[in-house]
């Protein structure tokens, strides 16, 4: 099955905080594929807000998004766009 | 000790968190840690049922959250909903249940503690705050598991209040409906912190960074919160109150209620009665030996079961000795009450225990089992005797039914002491030996026990279970386990009365002692030592400091004559106000 991965940098001021994580999880949950977020050696299910929060990604952190299954490529692209536009919170 | 104090006007400085001025009675929020029951699964097949309870609790909590939150909090709602229904949380809880054989309450506690620690360990204060919120959400789940609606603290008259807290997260504020809160005062925070942002969103005056929190106010004391200047006035003058009203009128705002200084002022401190606050500990749990908590005057109950459970062989004497010695040293010279194993035969495969008893709670457990299994009891007693010289040891026997059982333990102790002397050791004098009062017969016959015991410790949880013939593990019967039971009050009184002529100490170590309102009733009954869960120490202390025996003694006499725990609880709450 196809698997897509891409790396992104957290650019919003607070990092991958509660509301940002919520938006990430909500978006990820719209896709039927398995999606993970990895920060260094730690990996989390992108559909788990606890998992994403527990990565404790502050601003400037590099994360890798990987998706496997239907629409994997679209999922990575859309999630990447959300991260790069700072979850719509950039001043 | 001081008899009573009426505190006067005083001004406290802080930082302006959110503009506006308001006056109202204080409601002091202490950290409300629920007392989480820590049980192992009875049978390994029970895991599926425990997980089902978890799912049901999540559903209840999510529904409650949906129903109660005010508009301004709605932005946080989706975060909390996702956290409650999080797949990782469920997965980890399931692992604790199936893998570690913990019942769901304990499994949840363990997982949440782990998550919160990781968030706090990130070193980023922002993620640390999420840990606090997760713990609050977990409390909500624990309440749902115990079939309770998650309690939001309220002013005694139900009117709007000024919230005073160390810190206020959105999760804590979400419990209040619009109009229930007049203003916020916190110790933590800056003008740009979360509390301030929320306060501004809600249009509530707030003063943050007030170092005197929570001492600055007791529940019901009038506070003037000036969010423009960043100051708080306790017991403001009438002129100051009127000024707030005038300012509000000029702004065209409605004047918040509760501007009369009335009877709420002049709360009194405790009546000069000394109540010892002791700690409950689980030996074998990671935190038990970490630190001696501030404010505890000893250990009223050191449970030892964790040392024996989940092993393939009985815990050896040297291992037990090391644990007990360390505990005693850590607390010396304060007393440490070590309870011998309170286990049921079915929990210990290495004992060959294939107890098929239908009612384990009524079967061979506690001292009943230990006296039949010297290989369990004697190494423990020997380890304790060897450790006794390290500090102030007291021995507590669980699930005692008769004086003969106590005498049998004393015989073991004398034999072991002689053994130690023969081996060339010079053990400390034999420690005091006390019994748990869990079986109603013991409470009723307490006077007969006074010949053979040195102290009593009332375990309200089991005493209630046996008194009401209601299994503690049966959620449908949870209401029968209420420690406001008038029958329980009578039994505690019987023990206190029996012990008094001989001057024997009576302590209480069940959940009742960790509940501020329950603790107050116990003091009214004449109990002068409470052994409480660590998280409840400060809460219980704060509650007792505001009460007088002159109130409590007649109150418990009255409650003892009522027909139900529910009724007694209602009367107690109405009479003592929101101390719990």
Distance between the termini of chain A: 40 Å
- Class by alpha and beta content of chain B: alpha/beta
Q: What number of structural domains do the residues of chain A give?
A: 1
Low-confidence runs of chain B (pLDDT<50, min 5 residues)?
1-6, 254-272
Intertermini distance of chain B: 24 Å
Global Rg of chain B: 25 Å
- Mean of pLDDT of chain A: 91
CATH class of chain A: Alpha Beta
Structure, described:
The complex is a heterodimer of chains A (91) and B (580). In chain A, 33% of the residues lie in helices and 26% in strands. Chain A has one domain (3-88): 2-Layer Sandwich (Histidine-containing Protein, Chain: A), CATH 3.30.1340. The mean pLDDT of chain A is 91. Chain A has a four-stranded antiparallel β-sheet with strand order 1-4-2-3. With 91 residues, chain A is of the alpha+beta class. Chain A has helices at residues 18-28, 49-54, 72-84; strands spanning 3-9, 34-39, 42-45, 62-68. Chain B is an alpha/beta fold and 580 residues long. Chain B has three domains: 10-32 and 153-250, Phosphohistidine domain (Glucose Oxidase, domain 1, 3-Layer(bba) Sandwich), CATH 3.50.30; 44-145, PtsI, HPr-binding domain (Enzyme I, Chain A, domain 2, Orthogonal Bundle), CATH 1.10.274.10; 276-576, Alpha-Beta Barrel (TIM Barrel), CATH 3.20.20. Helices cover 42% and strands 14% of the residues of chain B. Chain B contains 22 helices and 16 strands. Chain B has helices at residues 47-68, 74-84, 87-98, 104-121, 125-145, 170-173, 194-202, 238-250, 305-308, 317-331, 367-372, 374-387, 403-422, 440-444, 446-449, 460-467, 486-499, 511-514, 516-525, 537-545, 549-559, 565-576; strands at 10-13, 15-18, 21-29, 161-165, 181-186, 206-208, 222-226, 231-234, 276-282, 299-303, 335-339, 392-397, 433-437, 455-458, 506-508, 529-533. An eight-stranded mixed β-sheet of chain B has the order 1-8-7-3-4-5-6-2. In chain B, strands 9-10-11-12-13-14-15-16 form an eight-stranded parallel barrel, surrounded by four helices. In chain B, helix 1 (47-68) packs antiparallel against helix 3 (87-98). The two termini of chain B are 24 Å apart. The model of chain B is unreliable at 1-6 and 254-272 (pLDDT under 50). The interface between A and B is medium-sized, with 20 and 20 residues.
